[in-house]
Amino acid sequence: MKPDFDLIIVGGSFAGLVCARTAAMRGLKVAVIDRKRDPGAQVRTTGILVKEAADVLDLPAGVSRKVRGVRIYAPSGRHRDLESDGYYFLATDTPALLRWLALDASLAGARLLYGARWQGACYEPGGLRLRGLDISTRYLIGADGARSQVARSFGLGPNERVLMGSEIHVPSLPGLDRGHLHCFFGRDQAPGYIGWAVPGVGCTQIGIATKSDRRPDLGPVLRQIEALTGLSDLDLTERRGGLIPVGGPVRPFASDRVMLIGDAAGLVSPLTGGGIHNAFRYGRRAAQVVSDYLQDRGTEPSQVLAREIPSYALKSLMRRTMDIGAPDWMIEAMLGTPVMGALAQSIFFRPRTITLPSMTPAFRHAPAARALGATGLI
Ligand SMILES: Cc1cc2nc3c(=O)[nH]c(=O)nc-3n(C[C@H](O)[C@H](O)[C@H](O)COP(=O)(O)OP(=O)(O)OC[C@H]3O[C@@H](n4cnc5c(N)ncnc54)[C@H](O)[C@@H]3O)c2cc1C
Q1: pLDDT tens-digit profile of 223-244?
Q2: If DSSP codes are grouped into helix, strand and coil, which group holds residue 92?
Q3: Least confident segment among 26-30, 89-93, 125-129, 343-347
Q4: Which stretches of 98-255 are assigned E, i.e. beta strand?
Q5: pLDDT tens by residue, 141-166
Q6: Which SS3 state, helix, strand or coil, does residue 150 take?
Q7: Average pLDDT, whole number, for the chain?
Q8: Angle (deg, nearest 10), helices 94-108 and 366-375
Q9: Cut 0.70: pTM above it
Q10: Which of 131, 144, 183, 347 to mutate to test the pocket of ligand 1 (most atoms within 8 A of CB)?
């Protein structure tokens, strides 16, 4: 019997939704399953888009705001500003962004099944049948995040090295410069990574990511923000947190008719922890190679992607150096030097390649997307 779908994607977040959109646009019969009830629920990320990702999303006003520079702080509170002509980051209203991506995929023809959890699958002639949901597919993509259950079900590689991220949202902080992403370094502030304060959309996002053997403690970063703004006892409006894979691509990332993308595949920069642009990039690319395979007898999809995904060898090496952690006196001494400036500039502003076509009209229907997301209809 013919499978119900050409492609089922587990995980309706950045990678899964962009993948679903492209696959549906190419004529595949696509379904996305996600355990969340609403694409914008349970957001785990800060949601900053680098310019390369932002260039290709025609976001409606109100969902994002531009932040042009990065301000890096030594433990003493001394800082240094970095900018690059023509470059910016986008702080996003991430739940709204995810709802637009979902609407866009759905307008392209993908069927979105939120509130549906992955429970495993078994092979049958012509494809796989998903347990519990009783739907079948010719090809399966796992876009279900850092602790992928799809990976586990098929014996694919786990993300062995992760950072733990924790973030709170407070009402926009007066006194915190809104033109910069504020990044805090130091052994207390953020062992192994950084603390941050992002002047976001209608709020300030304050977070920290640390090595997984350390529980993220926002205390030192909050104290530094208090010193900067004079504000304490901040009203907390939201809390987010999750794992950030930093060990590079998982191996293996595919098996017969199954492939991982996004965080599930470890496609996150080991150095910056940024994964959204890769989720877009390889989400889309996975859809292309799966459609080539299913429609035009193209090369097995994972073989094509294996040649394209980055190894992150240099960034992994730099991550291990960060894991050791520079002593505070060294950060203080380095802050103003040209070497530190050049290094930080290359980390934050180095161009990242990405090509994604302009989004379909979903982005012109902002209120509709918000309403649909809120009702759980998409
Ligand atoms: C605290 C924090 C801050 C971050 N900040 C940034 C940032 O500012 N910029 C950036 O580029 N990157 C950032 N990252 C990384 C970025 O969030 C990820 O790279 C990105 O979310 C990966 O997208 P994804 O679609 O692969 O996976 P995810 O966004 O993790 O989505 C996985 C989806 O799968 C679903 N799912 C999981 N298990 C199941 C199951 N069993 N059944 C059904 N559905 C399932 C989940 O509900 C979810 O919708 C941050 C990460 C963290 C933790």
Answers
A1: 999 999 988 888 999 999 999 9
A2: strand
A3: 343-347
A4: 111-114, 121-124, 127-130, 135-142, 162-170, 180-184, 195-199, 204-211, 238-245, 254-255
A5: 999 999 999 999 999 999 999 999 99
A6: helix
A7: 88
A8: 90
A9: yes
A10: 144
Each residue of 156-208: pLDDT tens digit?
A: 999 999 999 999 999 999 989 999 999 998 887 677 688 999 999 999 999 99
Count how many residues are written for the chain.
Answer: 378
Comparing CA positions, the residue from 193, 197, 198 lying closest to residue 214 is 193
Chain-centroid distance of CA 144 in Å reads 11
Two tokens, residue 190: 């953020």
The finding on whether 38 has its CB within 6 A of some atom of ligand 1 is no
Over residues 84-119, the pLDDT tens digits come to: 999 999 999 999 999 999 999 999 999 999 999 999
At 82, list the tokens.
């970095």
The contacts of residue 177 (CB under 8 Å, 6+ apart) are 71, 199
- Reported as a single tens digit per residue, the pLDDT across 35-66 is 999 999 999 999 999 998 877 767 777 789 99
Quick count: other Cβ atoms within 10 Å of Cβ 347?
A: 16
Q: Please give the Cα distance from 111 to 129 (Å, whole number).
A: 17
Rounded Cα distance between 229 and 177, Å, is: 10
3-state SS assignment for residue 294: helix
274 lines ligand 1 (CB under 6 A): yes
Q: Does ligand 1 have an atom closer than 6 angstroms to the CB of 117?
A: yes
Of the candidates 340, 320, 344, the one whose C-alpha atom is nearest the C-alpha of residue 330 is: 340
Q: How far is the CA of 183 from the centre of ligand 1 (A)?
A: 21
Quick one: pLDDT at residue 351?
62
Instruction: Report how far residue 50's alpha carbon sits from residue 88's, in angstroms, rounded to the nearest whole number.
Output: 7
Largest CA distance in the chain: 68
Cis peptide preceding 174, ω within 30 of 0: no
CB 280 within 8 A of CB 18: yes
> Which helix (H) or strand (E) element contains residue 180?
strand 180-184
Q: Give the domains, in start order, of the chain with CATH numbers.
A: 5-375 (3.50.50.60)
First to last CA, the chain: 28
